[in-house]
Amino acid sequence: FSGEITGVTDGAGRHFRLVLTTQAQRAEEARQQAISGGTEPSAFPDTLPGYTEYGRDNGIRLSAVWLTHDPEYPENLPAAPLVRYGWTPRGELAAVYDRSNTQVRSFTYDDKYRGRMVAHRHTSRPEIRYRYDSDGRVTEQLNPAGLSYTYQYEKDHITITDSLDRREVLHTQGEAGLKRVVKKEHADGSVTQSQFDAVGRLRTQTDAAGRTTEYSPDVVTGLITRITTPDGRASAFYYNHHSQLTSATGPDGLEIRREYDELGRLIQETAPDGDITRYRYDNPHSDLPCATEDATGSRKTMTWSRYAQLLSFTDCSGYVTRYDHDRFGQMTAVHREEGLSQYHAYDSRGQLIAVKDTQGHETRYEYNIAGDLTAVIAPDGSRNGTQYDAWGKAV
């Protein structure tokens, strides 16, 4: 894999291994799986075309990501990849698996046009299917358990009709990356409009009642410097050379101000009433404050892990709350004053399955395969269940 990225180290010192595979390796794996499963091997070529309509293709794909070093948990590394990817015989992304090896996404592609997705499914959800015109534009989105949509394309507008025969029309101007929706005819008959400048930045929006809001972007940065509401009232925004907001003045003339240090971190904020909040930092490499001081002089302090997780918070009265986290960054415990603690447990997919207090009172949570919360079991054993339709809406 010469020239390919096979490892990444993040700012916290964690090492990740990127498992790359060739088309030949994936083909051999497919054959071995078929043999071990006692099935006939499917057609899986050992090579892919060197060039496609999307450009050059060397056949190399990312198949998995492993955590190989964690400074905080060096002896407690995951025994499975954080994420895994499956590929079709034509090199298209077919499936995504999470750290519990649960398939969370699946994709189906057009037999004729490589890379054209014709179906997509979330875990245990109905499959959404797509149809295309000869130019490769989606003309139908078919949702078996919900609203389906059709799309009709003209030179300067797109008509969207749902399965209840409600219609919206999007009127466009511009070409390629500068094409913008300038008028929208809604299903209820109302119309909203937008205007853009020569480089595609929003200048005005007019609502269904004909009221127009104006936006003034900076010529160079594109940052909004002024917003004028339909009644003529204006708000102004000012930035430093790092594009950070330094002050904002509302229609009432009240102003907020912000100051930053040489590293670009917020160190002081002045509210419209003049109250000042200051932010302190004890680590030149962190954007997270170790303390804040308000206008009354009250001070709050925080400590953070190398992974930007809050470890402790001390309020202005000296009351300390501590937080524990697992290797995946999920909060596992909250420890308050007077020995009061609360503990959280998670399953292999990272879903909260139990909360227990210091007295041992435990509330448990259950989920379906799609990740919907199906039951809450109170400490006394009482059970509160919820059922869902195919799209995950509570019924």
Automatic annotation (TrEMBL):
Lineage summary: Bacteria, Pseudomonadati, Pseudomonadota, Gammaproteobacteria, Enterobacterales
Which ranges of the sequence are coiled-coil? none
| NCBIfam families the UniProt entry points to | YD_repeat_2x (TIGR01643)
Q: Which Pfam family is one of this chain's hits? A: RHS_repeat
> Any idea what this protein is called?
RHS repeat protein
- What residue intervals traverse the membrane? none
Cross-referenced InterPro entries:
RHS_repeat (IPR031325), T6SS_VgrG/RHS (IPR050708), YD (IPR006530)
